[in-house]
Amino acid sequence: LRIKPLTNDDVNCLSTRFQRQVITTNPAIPNSIIVQGEKKQVFSYDYVFGPESTQEEVYTNAIVRLVENFLEGYNVTILAYGQTSSGKTHTMGTADNSSISPDSKGIIPRAMETLFSSMNSLQCKNQKFSIKVSFIEIYNEDLIDLLGEGDMEARSQVTIREDSKGNILWNGLQEIKVNGVEDVMSHLARGSMNRQVGATEMNSKSSRSHAVFSVIMAQQKYVGSSPTPPPSTPPRPSTPSRLSDSSRIARSSSNLNLRMSRRFDEGDWVTVTSKFHFVDLAGSERLKRTSAVGERAKEGISINGGLLALGNVISALGDPNKAKHVTHVPYRDSKLTRLLQDSLGGNANTLMIACVSSSESNLNETINTLKYANRARNIKNSVSINQEESGWNDLEHLQSLVLKLRNEIKSLK
Ligand code: ADP
Ligand code: MG
């Protein structure tokens, strides 16, 4: 939970009566807050960051370990939830660019710095990485590729598919290869510029859509027993390439032996793929507060539709009383929940950052957010590293491996 301080804009907009701080922390009860509404309520979270908390504190306390998990090969998702102007985009860094001051940087640029410096560090020198980014917006249940080139109409349709292992695949989305932090930041800034923004009474610059920035990492790891991996690192690409026709014809066992000795340690390489989603959700406020009409009202309803579905998924997964009976989790009720299906109660480390404003004018929305976040906290995900041995789907590789192992067994006997 992060509590936003009153900004100059807030002070200018609100009468002094509504500037009263209604959420307080108590050092004696760590990670809890006290809400001074009509009645006094206490809520607890995994972390509570008060109005004075810095971007750096949020990052080092709550985020850095997730970046480390990501480097190990786990999927990670961070969601920023809260009403408009509660600090979601600021905390996440979705709209940051490379000229932002070091202190104000949000989670995305900081995570990218950790990621690239770890990749270039000594511990990782026996690994080969490939990093790609994508940036998608959900606006009125349409999926918009924020990194797509050219006219909106001319761009290919983004669709969501599920493979036989239950992995969610996003088709038709640009995934751009990146080589460093600067690279990532330029794509992030370009995508943010493309985000749909609309002016409502609540916040003239606020985004009325969900934005999902994703980092996809494929790493080839040496897991063999010899202290140094063979010199030709790694022996083959992650999708095994087919042998040329001429080598297919000459398939005598002596020929196989030759190949074997060249790729003796192949099974010692694994490919690990992991996804990191940074989700900046649309404002969670009720539509009536924005006095929206027409097109804007439609947006409001459908944005809440996505968040409503997210709430229902969270209830189905997170309510300990319901969890025993619920067999159906309504992921398909919205694009947002479908897109994030394998990150919600699935194979991912998931963190929700609930953003609230401490002033009294927002009290109702704040209490909604606090309750929503409390339910989310009950979800237990089960995570595993997405690892597959190099060449595992390659019949010829497996055949040569069998021959190699037979020979080894024979000589042992
Ligand atoms: P949201 O994305 O939830 O609509 P923003 O992140 O855009 O909200 O925040 C609204 C305004 O408040 C922005 O001008 C932002 O810079 C400022 N702000 C948000 N959180 C903080 C914070 N912790 N410290 C200082 N300013 C903040
Ligand atoms: Mg925002």
UniProtKB/TrEMBL annotation:
One of its GO terms (cellular component) is microtubule associated complex. Residues 239-254 have a biased composition (Low complexity). Its main location: cytoplasm. It is found in: Cytoplasm. Residues 227-238 have a biased composition (Pro residues). The keyword Ubl conjugation does not apply. InterPro entries: Kinesin-like_fam, Kinesin_motor_CS, Kinesin_motor_dom, Kinesin_motor_dom_sf, P-loop_NTPase. The keyword Transmembrane does not apply. Transmembrane segments: none annotated. Signal peptide: none annotated. GO terms for molecular function: ATP binding; hydrolase activity; microtubule binding; microtubule motor activity. ATP binds at G82, Q83, T84, S85, S86, G87, K88, T89. SUPFAM superfamilies: P-loop containing nucleoside triphosphate hydrolases. Residues 222-254 are annotated as: Disordered. GO terms for biological process: microtubule-based movement; mitotic spindle organization; spindle elongation. Residues 1-379 form the Kinesin motor domain. Keywords: ATP-binding, Coiled coil, Cytoplasm, Hydrolase, Microtubule, Motor protein, Nucleotide-binding. Belongs to the TRAFAC class myosin-kinesin ATPase superfamily. Kinesin family. This is Kinesin-like protein. It comes from Gigaspora rosea.
